[in-house]
């Protein structure tokens, strides 16, 4: 292939933000961060159109199998800002760490109010793996994917081939010092059941990293469980404060709880407006970003809250004006996904006539506010113990049936990742209960591409066939 042909091909496959939207984008507000800094819309635009494509070209690749593509709806300006929060995460964490802010690796599905309140930054496995991959910049999609696979393969050899990609990738990222992490603090709950492998890995492979395990009682049938977990969270917050040489006041907790409660409310109100609209106003990619931002997973709770405020305003205006998002087909099939860390191929599904309307694990968290009176540690414990996603299997299936009604889903995809032992055991059961009691078609999928940029065509073929059946 000639150099000219290669350049032309790369240009065709590259995503651009069109210059004609710049003037309108610059009229929108920027984002404040908890360290007192502020980025205006001009700075965000410059990063997303100049620096971002240079440093992270894989994210701007338009290939069909790229699972990390930018939202195609370029006029949903909040989506551009989410892209900024995503691509700048590593930069912001390194800067924060240099300024004495502890970075804490969390896992197991939990509210992150205690971490931010204690002056730390919580990071879940997915972004942590991505930061390790992005430590080397300028990679196209193939090279970025190979680097991600190499990190996970190193972790797999050190831990177990039977372990989920999430913990092996994040443990290896910490082990290689690809990102600064001061503490590892997983919740020992059923959503992540490969702890038989990774607990020992935490103890032996990360010898120089502080560990703090938060137990999650499987039996939640008494007040003792609240008291028990509240004490564990109290101990966690004390240790987090110790990393900074500071004590954490209750008023710090209440301030963060109220901030994140507002974000959770905004996330679910935005989603309900989307579900009830005649036209789907945003893409599946932006729907996913709104839901996960309600979990405050981009390293700064204030910036996430402001993103949610702006996204909510944009969505409400679009619904009012009857706007259908770019790339969304007329009368799309609505798909609800079920399962821990189960990804979805947004653009691919939309090209085939469907759209993602929700994910049960993440929605479980944005529908669980923390009480704002009483003992903050007990209120946080009550919230974590009340997550619908962590309920016994039959009760969790009823929660999904309620989501089917709320989201007006036409079909449900129950998916589980290789190595996720508990989810693989219950996924088929949940699919059968949901299908029997709701009448909505379901499909059960095992996937093995968690952490990869390239989607699996075999999986996509099954999803495409499911969409055709629903259509």
* Percentage of residues in DSSP E strands: 5-15%
How far apart, in Å, are the first and last alpha carbons? 41 Å
Q: Find the count of extended strands (DSSP E, 2+ residues).
A: 11
Overall pLDDT: 87
Shape: globular
Helix content: 40-55%
Q: What summary fits the major beta sheet? A: 5 strands, parallel
Helix/sheet category: alpha/beta
Supply database-style keywords.
471 residues, alpha/beta, Rossmann fold, five-stranded parallel sheet, four-stranded parallel sheet, 20 helices, 11 strands, disordered N terminus
Please render the helix and strand layout as text.
Layout: H1 3-12, H2 22-26, E1 31-32, E2 38-39, H3 41-55, H4 77-87, H5 89-98, E3 103-107, H6 113-117, E4 121-123, H7 125-133, H8 141-158, H9 165-175, E5 183-188, H10 195-205, E6 210-211, E7 214-215, H11 223-244, H12 250-276, H13 284-293, H14 301-321, E8 333-338, H15 346-351, E9 354-359, H16 360-366, H17 376-385, H18 393-407, E10 411-417, H19 421-438, E11 442-447, H20 457-470
Parallel strand pairs: 3-4, 3-5, 5-6, 5-7, 8-9, 8-10, 10-11
Antiparallel strand pairs: 1-2
Helix pairs in contact: 3-4, 4-14, 7-8, 7-9, 8-9, 9-10, 11-17, 12-13, 12-14, 18-19
């Amino acid at each position: 292939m000639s150099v000219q042909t290669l350049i032309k091909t790369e240009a065709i496959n590259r995503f651009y933000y069109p210059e004609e939207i710049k003037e309108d984008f610059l009229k929108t507000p920027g984002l404040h961060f908890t360290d007192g800094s502020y980025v205006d819309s001009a700075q965000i635009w410059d990063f997303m159109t100049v620096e971002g494509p240079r440093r992270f070209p894989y994210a701007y690749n338009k290939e069909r199998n790229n699972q990390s593509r930018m939202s195609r709806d370029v006029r949903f300006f909040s989506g551009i800002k989410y892209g900024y929060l995503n691509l700048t995460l590593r930069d912001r964490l390194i800067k924060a760490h240099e300024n004495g802010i502890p970075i804490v690796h969390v896992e197991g599905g939990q509210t992150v109010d205690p971490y931010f309140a204690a002056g730390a930054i919580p990071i879940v496995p997915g972004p942590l793996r991505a930061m390790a991959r992005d430590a080397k910049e300028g990679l196209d999609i193939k090279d970025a994917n190979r680097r991600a696979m190499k990190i996970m393969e190193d972790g797999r050899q050190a831990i177990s081939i039977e372990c989920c990609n999430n913990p092996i990738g994040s443990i290896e990222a910490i082990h290689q010092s690809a990102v600064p992490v001061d503490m590892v603090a997983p919740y020992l709950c059923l959503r992540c059941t490969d702890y038989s492998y990774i607990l020992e890995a935490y103890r032996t492979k990360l010898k120089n990293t502080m560990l703090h395990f938060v137990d999650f009682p499987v039996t939640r049938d008494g007040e003792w469980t609240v008291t028990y977990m509240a004490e564990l969270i109290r101990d966690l917050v004390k240790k987090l404060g110790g990393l900074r040489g500071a004590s954490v006041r209750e008023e710090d907790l209440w301030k963060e709880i109220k901030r994140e409660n507002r974000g959770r409310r905004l996330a679910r109100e935005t989603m309900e407006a989307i579900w009830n609209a005649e036209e789907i106003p945003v893409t599946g990619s932006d729907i996913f970003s709104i839901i996960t931002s309600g979990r405050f997973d981009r390293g700064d709770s204030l910036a996430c809250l402001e993103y949610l405020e702006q996204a909510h305003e944009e969505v409400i205006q679009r619904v009012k004006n009857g706007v259908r998002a770019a790339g969304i087909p007329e009368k799309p099939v609505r798909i609800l996904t079920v399962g821990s860390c189960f990804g979805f191929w947004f653009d691919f599904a939309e090209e085939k006539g469907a759209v993602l309307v929700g994910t049960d694990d993440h929605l479980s968290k944005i529908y669980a506010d923390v009480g704002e009176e009483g003992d903050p540690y007990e209120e946080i414990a009550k919230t974590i113990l009340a997550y619908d996603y962590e309920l016994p299997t039959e009760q969790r299936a009823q929660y999904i049936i309620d989501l089917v009604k709320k989201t007006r889903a036409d079909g449900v995809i129950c998916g589980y990742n290789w190595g996720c032992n508990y989810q693989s055991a219950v996924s088929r059961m949940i699919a059968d209960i949901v299908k029997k009691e709701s009448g909505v078609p379901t499909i059960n999928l095992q996937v093995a591409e968690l952490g990869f940029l390239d989607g699996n065509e075999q999986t996509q073929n099954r999803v495409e066939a499911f969409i055709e059946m629903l259509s």
